[in-house]
Design goal:
- This protein is an alpha+beta fold and 125 residues long.
- It has one domain: Arc Repressor Mutant, subunit A.
- Helix content is 51%, strand content 12%.
- It has six helices and three strands; from the N terminus they run H-H-E-H-H-E-E-H-H.
- A three-stranded antiparallel beta sheet has the order 1-3-2.
- A hairpin with a 6-residue loop joins strand 2 and strand 3.
Length: 125
Amino acid sequence: MTKSQSNPYEGLQRAFHEPKRLAIMAALIGTPSQEMTFTELKEGCDLTDGNLNRHLKTLEDAGAVAFRRSPGPGRPQTIVSLTKGGHRAFLEYLVALEEVLKIAAAAAKPQTASDSGALAKPVRA
């Protein structure tokens, strides 16, 4: 049994659980090459240079992304790519997140009279 099967909350990896880092990882995993230029990520995820740099540093420290410089028109471009470990870890994160969301959705469902074994009482204002 994996961690996410025994306790799905343990699979919610902090490196991915911030909305903009989730967007970066989703953008990278959603491309056939699993890489994008810094500018593509910046524009696609609606981030400033500094904000994207900060999030990419966190993802790099987690081993999820890597960088390389590529000659481009004018000046060299920074290419951000998903690592094999980052790909695997992000998929595990998505499985854990899906499980947590299922638990939350089930808990949020309103109980019906048949669920509780009693008739629902009207609420008075």
